[in-house]
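Handout, section B. The chain below has 338 residues.
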Amino acid sequence: MRAGFKWVCLIIGTTIGAGYASGRELWQFFGQDSSLAILLFSIMFSFCCMSIMRISYEQRASHYLPVLRKVVGKHLTGIYDGMIIIYLFTTTVVMLAGSGATWQAFHFSYRLGVIAIIIPLILLFVWDVKGIVTVNSLVLPLLIGGLLFVLLLFTHDQNLSMFGHIKETSNWKAAFPFTALNVVPLIAVLGAIGNKIESRREIWVASIGSGLLLGVVSYLYNNSLIQISEEIILYEIPLFAILKEYPFEMMIFMSIVMWIAMFTTAASGMLGIVTRFREYLKQPLWILSMITIAIMIPFTSFGFSTLIEYLYPLYGLLNLYVLGSLLLSPFIHRFKIR
């Protein structure tokens, strides 16, 4: 259980980034009529995590390329390898931009907010992969606990029914691009830890635990966002619309929680990139991360919500093939064994 929890932290830390924690990503895909979509997402997410971790474990992988080759086949590996690199790069840029937007909300410089995430991000890689796993294990309880606390408090204060929208299911198709969007970074991250998984029991705990946890948080968050749907357009970060009636200290606390989400996802994205190129460049991970961040900085000027609005739906559609391959992978694997 302890080892499985370690990977739950890595998976959740990879998934809950600036887009998710702010509410912008959830509203972009879900919103009204999405209770069934969120249930389907939770199930498919667990299934995909199980497939990725099983392949990574069997390959004893230290980066994602062997896993990707098994998922999409050798003929498409080159195409999806390039897509994953671009995805990880742009997603990490979104996290850096999200840090800038968070600091800007408190009247600090946007650039100062970007620098505030860059420095610890580079320092984290001094401890290689172990540093990321350890940090995720330490900060995830605060991240999930903070989100659940605010969402449950908002539900109570607004006298909302947790199941008031459970029968609204017409947007069920949104589950597929949303799941596809989130499984691609998992290939990059979980593909780098195959040689550190010690048993298949860890895979079961990590997969079911992360899917269940994300499903519950996503449902509560989306339920809260529906109540403020008319105000979301006024906020770059929808979470701040939920917090506007609460004391300023609450906004500070949740801004810290959201910043942690950005940091863990930026670290996971960077992990996928630097482990992919380490065998070619033969440099420590912190040096590779420093070079990568230097290339990313100019792209943060596009802004947080703009990046999410255009990039995330595009990636969700492009990665549907990967999602299908992962969902079918266990059945194909069992057929080959027989």
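Note. The chain is about 80% helix and 0% strand. Compare this with the example in section A.
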